[in-house]
Amino acid sequence: MYKQDRTNDISEYKMNYINFILSNMKAFTNLLKKNPAIWDSILLILRIWFGYVMIKNGFVFFKIVSSGEERKIIEDWFGGKLHFPLPVFMACLAKGSEVFGGLFVLLGLFTRVSALFVFITMLVATLVANTGIGWDVYGTITLSFAFFALLFIYWGGGKFALDRMIWRRENPV
């Protein structure tokens, strides 16, 4: 009897929580519809944060290009452990898409295309390099970055992006 009562309490709690979330989502959506500048400001803040993090994480690209020691580490990891063909080239592609994709997303220039490159990189990193032992930390981080990139693929850079200023279109590619 106690177990059944406890289950009903939990189910009722879950339903109240879901209703609370849904009602607040509706209120937030209505607020954004009435004030699109709020959403554009949110996109700007997210673009700056995401771009900065991608540039910071991908900055090792310049070490790979300039340091023989770093290339050896990459060959051992990408080639030996992950079994990528052309490991240094693949690492340069991945880290280059993080640095330059992050820079372009930060600026709001070619936002959707840049975010697509970052999305593919983060998806591959999640599925190939960050599953298994490191999934708790690294896999969830790269998967989160992939979802953020999807946000920019769908919405673009927003009103305060260079895309919008240069091409003066509502939804530039």
Architecture overview:
This protein is mainly α and 173 residues long. It folds into two domains: 1-34; 36-167, no CATH class. Helix content is 82%, strand content 0%. It has helices at 2-34, 36-58, 60-66, 68-81, 87-107, 111-129, 138-155, 162-167. The chain is flat, with a radius of gyration of 21 Å. The N and C termini lie far apart (60 Å). The mean pLDDT is 81.
Summary, kept brief:
With 173 residues, the chain is mainly alpha-helical. It is 82% helix and 0% strand.
Our count of helices gives 8
What ranges have pLDDT less than 50 throughout 5 or more consecutive residues? none
N/C terminus separation: 60 Å
Count of structural domains: 2
Please count the beta strands (DSSP E, at least 2 residues each).
0
Mean pLDDT: 81
Shape: flat
Specify the helix fraction band: over 70%
In terms of DSSP E residues, the strand content is: under 5%
Rg over CA atoms, rounded to whole Å, is: 21 Å
Q: Report the structural category.
A: mainly alpha
Order of helices and strands: HHHHHHHH
Largest sheet: none
Pick out its properties.
mainly alpha, flat, single chain, 2 domains, 173 residues, 0% strand
List the helices and strands and how they pair.
Elements: H1 2-34, H2 36-58, H3 60-66, H4 68-81, H5 87-107, H6 111-129, H7 138-155, H8 162-167
Helix pairs in contact: 1-2, 2-5, 2-7, 3-4, 3-5, 4-5, 5-6, 6-7
